[in-house]
């Protein structure tokens, strides 16, 4: 089971939150960072599920991947819209920290393996 802590992602998110806190948008950056961490958890859950169930067919694996991608995209879009329109958060800080968090996740994956 892959339980590595995403160190690069967390470092980038903390720097992003610190930067946007100086512009009174730290909460927005934190929210965007939490969305990217939720995405990371879902990706790791999907990967672990695929690795643990070696008896699945290729067609089932592709179907699981498609469901995972659609589910994560729907989650990211809906949480971003909730943050912007319902919670009234700063869209710039939210989206920038979300994107930086996802980039950090990718760096963790590439450099960690």
UniProtKB/TrEMBL annotation:
InterPro entries, A to Z: ATP_synth_I (IPR005598)
Membrane topology category: Multi-pass membrane protein
Keywords: Cell membrane, Membrane, Transmembrane, Transmembrane helix
UniProt keyword Transmembrane helix present: yes
Transmembrane segments: 12-43, 64-87, 93-111
Domain of life assignment: Bacteria
UniProt feature coiled coil, ranges: none
Pfam families recorded: ATP-synt_I
Chief place of localization: membrane
Residues spanning the signal sequence: none
Entry's localization field: Cell membrane
Record-given protein name: FIG048548: ATP synthase protein I2
Organism, scientific name: Bathymodiolus thermophilus thioautotrophic gill symbiont
Lineage of the species this protein comes from: Bacteria, Pseudomonadati, Pseudomonadota, Gammaproteobacteria, sulfur-oxidizing symbionts
